[in-house]
Every structure is written in C-alpha cells, then in structure tokens.
Design a protein that fits this description.
With 128 residues, this protein is of the alpha+beta class. The protein contains one helix and seven strands; from the N terminus they run H-E-E-E-E-E-E-E.
Amino acid sequence: MTSMLLGIGSMLGRICLNRSQHLRVLMCFLGVTWSSVLLADTHGPVEIYSDIGDLKVENRANVVHDRVILTLKNLEDTDIHCEVHFMNGPELMIKRVGFVSSGKEILFNAPLRRTVVKIVIDFSCQAI
C-alpha cells in the first residue's frame, strides 16, 4: 500500500514538474512572439515616382530596419546618370547621385531618422 502511494506521489510530482516546464516553454514562446511583433517591418509601401523618359531602367525599393533602399538596374546599351530623392514626411529630403554602367545595378540608400510617416522616392535618369 505504501509503495503504491509512493508511486502515485512520484507520478504526481512528475506531472507537476512537467506543468512547470510547459509553463516555462509557453512563456518563452510568448516572449519570442512578442519580440518578433515589435521588430516586424511596420513600414507601409514605398511610393516611387520616376522621370526616365524612354530609358529602360528597372527599379526596386525596400525598407530594411532603419534604411530605405532603392536598386536601379540599367537595361540600356549606354551608361546613365541618376539622381534619387528620398522623402519621409517631416524629415529633410535626402539626395543621392550615381552613375550606372550598362547592364549593371546600383544601390541608393538613406537612413530613416524619425517615425515613418510616408516614404516617397523620386528619381530621374539621363543617358550619358
């Protein structure tokens, strides 16, 4: 009889230990989930306006952590000169200038210093 009670007691002890471990795992999971929500990309879409005329230029914009990145790929047979303006609500406009060789691509980027209001990228390119 006492051995049966000890067996039941040890089994209940294991269940309690497992509940404690389950609680720890659940708390860890909730902490990781909450931190990923806080670190998630909360920026809206990036508006892109271009003045490239008849030039064949491929563009792609991304927001990575606290930077806005514009990738321009030159699909022309000649080199091009590009000027990019990054605008985010109340922040001052940031201007970047670069040359893109034929068949190559270049990255233009700018930091986001304040809360993102509305990200707008305006770029223009001319053949050289």
